[in-house]
Batch of 2 targets.
Target 1
Amino acid sequence: MRFQNRKVVVTGGTGALGAAVVELLVQEGAEVWVPVHGRKGAPVAGPGKVEFVEGVDLSDEAAVSAFYQKAGPLWASIHTAGGFSMSPIAETSKADFQKMFDSNALTAFLCCREAVKQIRAAGIGGRIVNVTAKPALHPVEGMTAYSVSKAAVLSLTLSLAEELSRESIWVNAVVPSIMDTPQNRASFPSKTDFSQWPSVADVAATLLFLASVDNRVTRGAAVPVYGKS
């Protein structure tokens, strides 16, 4: 019950990874706030509770600010929202690049900024955890726009870890490789060894540790969650 009586925001909380994070947080007694834009949230059983707030576009500055103000003082904010696409550089348009940057870097920036305000309002320090991606560290052919956007998330994480350390607000990121989700399985040949991929449950557990009171000293980390992939 590391999160009992603690309020936590989870962006992307209706996606595969985000839903796993929400479920674990509720099991540990958290009050979880999830901004929703499109996919509906499902009830989660446990000693904690979930508040889904619909109609929140995380690339809209005013919408993000209003959501965090509604959530109020926080202990932590975990940012799993984002997008993915790939194409050779010669076939990547300005709109393609902008979409990746907005989906990943801009949403993380806006949510981090508003989370800082609400964590400060609580007055006890707190935690912010972002999600970057392995291609941001180890380039992959055809993923330039995606990799750049996720590298920006990593840079944001490292910058904020320094800026906020004196306030006991630890900022970290996890760095997944491809995760074992139904959508990802459907994108690969059936002969692929999916056991090599990290499960969303295991990645979620790492996120929870970084966001918890058990994390007493780790900040500015980019934690690989690759499994064997």
Target 2
Amino acid sequence: MFRLFRLWRLAGRDLRLLWFALRHPARPAWLAPLAVLLLLWALDPLNLADPLLGFADDLLLLPLVLHLALRLLPPQVLAGFGRRTA
């Protein structure tokens, strides 16, 4: 259970990083479409059709995919976020 809370705390930081990166001038071209796809994934009607699968999807897979995608950001974007939060 503790790992799940750590994952969600990390997801909160990742959402702030995503918001920062979307407004950064050096953001990669793939970031905006990825953000839209992640939003659509979170709002997916599959959550209504099969609640258990939707729960596992939103609780585990979505934060992991977000974190892995943000690890591909350019160093100057990550450095800018580090200066902003420090």
